[in-house]
């Protein structure tokens, strides 16, 4: 996978295109000078075969989560004793939507995960929220899941792993990506319920909370795209 994971036990998770996840760690726990050894291997179940993981993350209750190029989801207990499978909304036909060779499939980035089970994934066409229930994935609106389109004028989708903005009891909670406009914009989406007094942006899904052009100081720039996640500090 493009994006790997280290957990609080200093174990390192890597997903391989051949269809398995390996975990490495210190041969002597807590001794960083000891050899690095393979701890365990998880081979994808039959229903997940052929998938290419784009990145790994972890839920707040300790399940390792991956999303694949074709919009498939896998949650895995760190000891590999249990797993759950799921699908992103709108992923039908995703296997035929690559726009370039490696790295330009329907999903190109890792997921972001919040402390309430929200899993945020940007696909080639949509910004998605899937909800981890503690025992599986939900794409149901009653559970708080959603998916909305964003501008993809250049055709390859966003190059940005979603970043979370806003934490705490009363803060506005948002998720931000850069979109697929030829001259990209920051797109902010409401993560949870949309405030009742929010009027929305004309001709855009009401879930879209704000749009900021990325100009790098050149207001006349006609084309700009980057492949990085948006770096967030507070609301900046």
What does this molecule look like?
The chain is an all-beta fold and 236 residues long. Helices cover 0% and strands 35% of the residues. It is globular and about 55 Å long. The chain starts with a strand and ends in a 23-residue tail after the last strand.
Secondary-structure blueprint:
Blueprint: E1 5-6, E2 12-16, E3 20-26, E4 36-43, E5 53-58, E6 64-68, E7 72-76, E8 83-87, E9 112-113, E10 118-122, E11 126-132, E12 137-138, E13 146-149, E14 163-165, E15 174-178, E16 185-190, E17 208-213
Antiparallel strand pairs: 1-2, 2-3, 3-4, 5-6, 6-7, 7-8, 9-10, 10-11, 11-12, 11-13, 14-15, 15-16, 16-17
Q: Key features?
A:
single chain; 236 residues; mainly beta; five-stranded antiparallel beta sheet; four-stranded antiparallel beta sheet; 0% helix; globular
The general outline is globular
Report mean pLDDT, rounded to a whole number.
95
Percent helix: under 10%
- Discrete helix count: 0
Low-confidence parts: none
Structural class: mainly beta
- The ordered string of helix (H) and strand (E) elements is EEEEEEEEEEEEEEEEE
Specify Rg, calculated over alpha carbons.
18 Å
Number of strands: 17
Query: How many strands, which pairing sense, and closed or not: the largest β-sheet?
Result: 5 strands, antiparallel
In summary, what is this structure?
By secondary structure, this protein is mainly beta.
């Amino acid at each position: 996978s493009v994006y790997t994971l280290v957990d609080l036990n200093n174990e390192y998770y890597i997903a391989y295109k051949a269809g398995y996840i390996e975990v490495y760690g210190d041969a002597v726990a807590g001794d960083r000078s000891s050899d690095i050894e393979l701890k365990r291997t998880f081979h994808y179940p039959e229903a997940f075969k052929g998938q290419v993981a784009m990145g790994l993350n972890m839920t707040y209750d300790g399940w390792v989560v991956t999303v694949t190029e074709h919009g498939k989801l896998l949650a895995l207990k760190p000891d590999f004793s249990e797993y759950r499978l799921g699908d992103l909304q709108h992923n039908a036909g995703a296997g035929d939507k690559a726009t370039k060779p490696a790295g330009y499939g329907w999903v190109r980035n890792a997921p972001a995960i919040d402390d309430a089970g929200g899993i945020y994934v940007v696909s080639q066409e949509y910004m998605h929220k899937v909800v981890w229930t503690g025992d599986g994935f939900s794409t149901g609106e009653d559970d708080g899941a959603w998916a909305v389109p964003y501008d993809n004028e250049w055709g390859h989708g966003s190059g940005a792993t979603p970043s979370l903005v806003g934490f705490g009891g009363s803060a506005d909670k948002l998720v931000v990506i850069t979109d697929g406009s030829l001259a990209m914009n920051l797109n902010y989406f409401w993560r949870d319920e949309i405030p009742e007094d929010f009027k929305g942006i004309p001709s855009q899904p009401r879930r879209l909370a704000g749009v900021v052009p990325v100009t790098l100081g050149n207001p006349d720039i006609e084309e700009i795209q980057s492949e990085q996640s948006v770096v967030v500090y507070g609301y900046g």
